[in-house]
Predict the 3D structure of the following.
Amino acid sequence: MRTGGKLVLVVLAVGVLGTLVGFYAWRLTYEAGSPAYTVPVKFVAGRPVVDLKIMTVAAIGPKLSQNPDWVSYLVDTQNGWKRETVWNLPANATVHVTWFNFDGASGLRNPYLSRPQGIVGNRILLDGKPVNVIDPNDASHTFAVPQLGIIVAAPGVGDNAKNQCGFAPCSMNSAHRTVRFTFHTTTPGHFRWQCFVPCAAGWIDGFGGPMQTIGYMDGFLNVKA
Amino acid sequence: MSAAAPAGSVATPNHGRRVVIAWLLLSAVATPLVAIYVGPLFPPGNATVQSQGQVFDNQVMTALMTPVICLLAVFFAYGLVKFRAEKNEALLDGPPLRNDAKVQLLWVVITSTMVLFLAGFGTYELLKDGSGGGQGPNPIAFPANHQSAFQVQVIGQQWEFTYRYPSLGLESNQLVLPANTDVEFHVTSLDVIHSFWAVELGVKADANPGVDNVTYVQTKSPTTFHVRCAELCGLWHGYMFNNGEVVSASQFTAWAASAEKIYASIKPYVNRDAPYGLTYLPDPQRRAG
Amino acid sequence: MTLARRLLGFNLLTAIVLGVGGWYAGWFGAHAIVGPSIDYFGNIDYNELSVFLAYLGGVVGFLAGLGFLNYPLARLRGYPPSLREKETQGIGRYFTLCTDHKVVGIQYLWGIGLFFFIGGLNAMLIRTELLTPHNQVFPAGTYLTIVGMHGTMMMGMMTSGILGPFANYLVPIMIGARRMAFPRIEALTFWLLMAAGGILTTTIFFGGFPTGWTGYAPLSNEASAGMDNYILFFALVGISMTLLGVNMLATIVTMRAPGLTWTRLPIFVWGVVSTAVLMVLAAPVLIAVLSMEALDRTAQTTFFVTAGGGSPYLYQNLFWIFGHPEVYILALPGFAIVLELLPVFARKPLWGYRLAVAGLLGVSLLSWFVWQHHLFVSGMNGDLRPFYMLSTELISIPTGFTFLCGMMTLWRGRIRYTVPMLFCLAWFFNFLIGGLSGVFLSDAPSDTTTHGSFFSMAHFHYTIMGGLVFTFFAGIYYWVPKMTGFQLNERLGKIHFWTMFFFFNSTFFPLFIAGFEGQPRRVVTYPSGLQFLNDWVSISAFCLGISMLVFLFNLVWSLAFVKKPAEANPWGSRSIEFQLPSPVPVHNFDRLPVFTSDPYGYGEGAPPLGGLAPAGAPAGRD
């Protein structure tokens, strides 16, 4: 083969390889369905205040995921409920969380996590009533941010409840529990949050699948100044 | 290294003697310097008796390795310069030296002695107090008064360590230890394999599901330390860390009281579900769905 | 043969087509038989069985497309036995099932090179993530897959890293034979490895795997379908390793030319023997433990699940019974190459031949008795810790023999600093550091802090990369002129060597410190105080990657563009392969050699090896 031909071949090969490598690197950085959602901020007496509405469902459904029967968190954005678990919050802010749980109970493996911690008053409003611990067997999911010391467990919808939700997004007419609590952010940072209840149905230890995938049962709080 | 020189080669310098002398001199200078000045710099530090033991171990090993490194350094520094082929010379061969039984014997004896010494020394250090490593349910190496050791159960779960204090009847997600105390850790896991690594304390014990992995540490003066998970356990393995503290006895009592307040509401559920035992083998069978 | 006819025959293209077809056949077949949801624990999206059967179908299709089924089917139909497949000329044969051992050697070189490149890319991605402890470049789950892919790809591919290319090419020549004992199986080991590599690179499409290269049990049971790619990859690699080892042993034991007694065997061949023994005995354990894992994931057995009466310890022990001999499979060929090349470039006989052989075989033997040093803090029976500490420390004795023989070979020699020699000398430096850090790790008290940390990672990178990969390059620069007939550029080679050596040490030495300071392995974030260290390491790693590009450029430039013909014996070696023309002709020898000595007769005025007419080698005498 002539030198010119060989040179062209080499340049082509380098180009193809480079493209493949670039594509591979890009594909790996792609956050698998969880871009960051910036929660809208309002200011009360000079302090940023944020209203975070989240929901947990027993099955995410085919429209929102390629794994329709995975449990998942959703967040209420201005465009409706989205399956995004990376949330941007302001630093030194008050965060009011309203959490609608449409899923049944799986039970906490470690009862220590059934007591709310790291939140204001160390208690939650469960369906309107203040509660400072739930029965670990009733736990359905937790919202926990270990780096900030936040642990909140939500109890599940009873097995015999009427009108249980099938696939997300769930309407408020379906059986659900409502948990309200408040916590404060302080320094800026990148804090992971996770569920501690082994709620991934069908996986050994209940911890596979959605429990180990960002965008379902795990996420980040990006606290920005 | 006095290899037999070909008969009649008059002015061949005794390379072997030069190398040996240079090596001995270098080792004689380097080894004490390393042992005294470099040795104590080794982690994990002096926070506990076990970590001090590890530092000492590292010191001894480094001191023993220094002559080995010196030998190779002198050998190559000398040999790669002295025995270099002349540039552009015709391809000439070197002397046909195939063997020297004395050298082989010397090498085998010296290396074997060093290795056996290290193994023996390491065993002595290990059996003295366990060196902070996990020993399973039936430990054989413990500090002197281990019967009355303060027990802490470390529970690894995906992806957080929590700590139970049987004598205080509470659990916490902070590891606080009293100073100047023998502590007996019982490490277990609720799901996959984790590893409890208290870095500055010099403690590491794998958390295996269904297994009670016991390890001992003897704390000294108050300090802070990090706990990291040292066995890949899934998504947040890298984020599975705490900060821990060794505090004075009075501070420890104060902390226990405040932790007790948090734990009080959980207690009824713990007693109801499973007896709060010393060796906690939680049932990992709880499956969802 | 027209181009169309060639493309339609049994070759890589057909193999890929049939492989993809087989994959879909397996996937849909499994779905049709088993049904789209299996109601074991609940609803699982991935029918685990489907993934396994799909990839198995793919592998069968791939091998059928290459023509591996032709011969067995022909024999079943009564055709007589034959040894050779198809062509002996042209570049096309490198993409087919070719029974010429030299072709298989060169296929291995490029194939392993390709996957080494992919594994190296993953390493660059890991270091990118570790530039800062706070920001996430990759999602945390993907990062674990990248880490796992890097380790798994490297371990799976580099176990055959020297035996594949160099032993396949050189062993028949060095023992005076025209072929290996089982030529078709030889080709099979290569193509199995390629199929396996393809399986591993597609793991990300099934969610990746979170366990790292060791695949520890309870976590691997929790993982999604990407774990099956890992299991299949290693199982195929295990089969390839076993067959490779069997082939090597059968060849070396039975096909040596007249006069080639065991004491006249080149030390490289002794290295191959000691490695092949380990391969044959250890790889099946890997296949067994992976089969158990596959059963756990599909048939819901509970070998490694505590709830069902199993134990994670079972996995750990079985894995490391394979895993420890595995790392000696990686290290021993490196020793062999160093000891083979030093006599040539010091122009002296190999010093202490019997001691060197004893060292190689001693490492091989002792490697079976040390595996629990990976489990010192796992809660194993405390009584065992002193024993395994002793056995692990003892391994440094036969390893020391290699150092002694190498150093004494250099002693009073006439050393030429060619590129292969530089890589061999670097081996001494790297393996010394690697070996001494191994002493730290083998000491159970010290291991309490260093187990599972970056210290242990730096140790094995020094021994494997500093030991195996450096000697891999030594072998390339030394033997590629013989294999291809073209020279590699010496200056580019030296640039490659010095940049690689400098940046390799700059990358991995600080990791010893990071490990001591409390950075565990496989973590995506670390204490902020270690950021400077990690940044230094990352930048060095990027430069190390660039040095590999220098090598790649040299390879392509010299072999495809410059094409300067190499003489038959550019290094003045007495070894038998350098008494043959470059490249070595298809039939190897015009007439089979008769050996009267080992290949290390420098300075002894012996006749050239094998009684062949020397093709341009100068007779040496001082």
Summary: The mean pLDDT of chain A is 86. Helices of chain A lie at 3-29. Residues 1-30 of chain A form one domain.
